[in-house]
Structures are given as C-alpha cells and as structure tokens.
Amino acid sequence: MTTPERESVRFKSRQITALNDLVNEVAENNAGLSSNDIERAFVYKLQRALGVERLESLPLHDEKIITVGGITLYPERGIVILPDGTRKDFSRQEVRFLWPLISNPGRVIPYNLIAKSMFGRTRSIGDFAMGDLRVYAQYVRKKIGDCRISSSGSGAKFRYINSVMGHGYIFTPESEL
C-alpha cells in the first residue's frame, strides 16, 4: 500500500470514528427523547460538524429526483420545490400519492395504482376508502398551490392534479395545458 493510500485509509478511519463518537454523544445526551427528537439533535450536530446550514445541500446516493412542469420532487427527503423556488415538506403518504402522478405526466393513473403506491399492495376500489385518496389529493394540491382554473359541468379543472371520474388522477403540468 502506497503512502497516499495509507493516508486515505487513516482519514476515512478518523471520519468513521468521529461519526461514531457523534452518534454516541447524541444518544447519551438525549436519553428519554423520541426518536424524531434524537434524529433532529443528530442532524443539528452533524450540520455543525460539517459546517453546512442544511444537510439537504449534501447529495444523497441513488435518490430518484424528478422535475416536471417546474415542480421538483425529492421523494427520499419528502421535499417538493415549486416553480417559484418555494420549498414544501411532504409526509411520506403525500409523496407516495404524488410519485406515480408526477412520474407519468399526462397519463391517467388508476386509483388502485395510487393506492398500491400509498399502502404497499394492490387493493380493489372496495377495499379502501375513496375519501382517503380525495383527502390526500386535497393535501397535495394545497401544498403545491394547485388552484382551480375552471369549473364546468364535468367538474373542476386544476392547474396540476385533476380527477378523472371513475378512473383515477392525472398530473398535467402548466406547460402542457
């Protein structure tokens, strides 16, 4: 092993040791806190140790990022960046609702496929409440600023996410209207 290789191994070893010490420190100092609070404390300490304001500025491995119609979805992080640059935090279920739609712009995604994305298995329409999907559609529309652009006898038309009665939902970015 050459000297530069040995130095690289030593540096990586020091990084791992420092990270391990950080994990132990956070766990010891935050006993009795919820796992979410411990995670926040760890992220804060890690940000300070790395000298970054937000960890999201660091790349994640193999994260599937998709941008359609100016909307960028970071599914692993539960973050959506709107066309105006505004950042919105999404719950896992909201991401699972949005992912099949934004991944297939302009295509009607059947209710049962959205349910599979959200609940992890294919379900028939009778097995889940349509109200649940409507509620998540409403949550996601509100977060992305999806406003009603017209109303007609066939129902309301939204800027991004529209319902196709009896079939599913469709994501139609503004640029495709």
Descriptive report:
With 177 residues, this protein is α+β, with helices and mostly antiparallel strands. It has 2 domains: 3-57; 66-176, Orthogonal Bundle (Arc Repressor Mutant, subunit A). The protein has helices at residues 3-29, 35-50, 92-103, 111-119, 130-143, and strands spanning 66-68, 71-74, 79-81, 87-89, 108-110, 148-152, 155-158, 161-164, 168-171. It has a 4-stranded antiparallel β-sheet with strand order 1-2-3-4, with helices on one face. A 3-stranded antiparallel β-sheet has the order 5-9-8. The protein has a two-stranded antiparallel sheet with strand order 6-7. The radius of gyration is 22 Å and the shape is elongated. It starts with a helix and ends in a 6-residue tail after the last strand.
Short description:
The chain has 177 residues and is of the alpha+beta class. The protein has helices spanning 3-29, 35-50, 92-103, 111-119, 130-143; strands at residues 66-68, 71-74, 79-81, 87-89, 108-110, 148-152, 155-158, 161-164, 168-171.
Count up the helices.
Answer: 5
The termini sit apart by 61 Å
Q: Percent of residues in beta strands?
A: 15-25%
Q: Please identify which CATH superfamily of the largest domain we are dealing with.
A: Winged helix-like DNA-binding domain superfamily/Winged helix DNA-binding domain
Would you count the extended β strands for me? 9
Number of domains: 2
Q: Characterize the overall form.
A: elongated
Descriptors for this entry?
177 residues; alpha+beta; Arc Repressor Mutant, subunit A; 2 domains; 4-stranded antiparallel beta sheet; 3-stranded antiparallel beta sheet; 5 helices; 44% helix; 19% strand; elongated
